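Async update (no meeting this week)

Hi team, since we skipped the sync, here's where things stand on the single-chain job. The sequence we agreed to prioritize is pasted below, unchanged from the tracker. I ran it this morning and attached the output directly underneath so nobody has to dig for it. Comments welcome in thread, and please keep replies under the output.
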Amino acid sequence: MDYAVEIKFKALVAELDERFGGGLDVQSILFLIGVQELGKGYKNFNKREKTELMHVAVCTVLEPYGFYKTIGRDEDNWPHFEFLKELPPLDERQQQHLMKEAILAYFKAENNESPDNIEIPEVLRYFEQ
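Output:
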C-alpha cells in the first residue's frame, strides 16, 4: 500500500482530532462527512439516520471515481445517489486504503485544491483494463 496516503491520513486524523476530540477512525470520519453533506449540523441521530449518513458519505467520497452520481435531494434535504458501477473485489485492507484515499480527496476538494485532478486510487488501478 501507499505509505504517503497513510502519512497524509494520519495528519488528517490529527487535525480532526484537535477539532472533534480524539479517537477518530475511517468510520467516524465518514460519519462526519455524512453530517457535513446533509448540511443540517449535528444533532442526535437515530440508528437509521446514522446508517444513512454513512451511506451518504461513502457515495460522496466514491462519486469522483465513477461509482455513484448525485441525483438530487428529497423533501427533507437528504442527498440521493445513483449507483453506477460495482467496486472491484477488494479485501479489507484494500477497502480501508481506498476509503482513506477517497477521504483525503474529499477534504482536498473541500479546501478547493483542484478536485478535478483526482487520481484513481492505487488499489483500483490494478483492476483497470
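Quick observations from my side:
Confidence is low (pLDDT under 50) at residues 114-120, 122-129.
The chain is about 55% helix and 10% strand.
Reply here if anything looks off.
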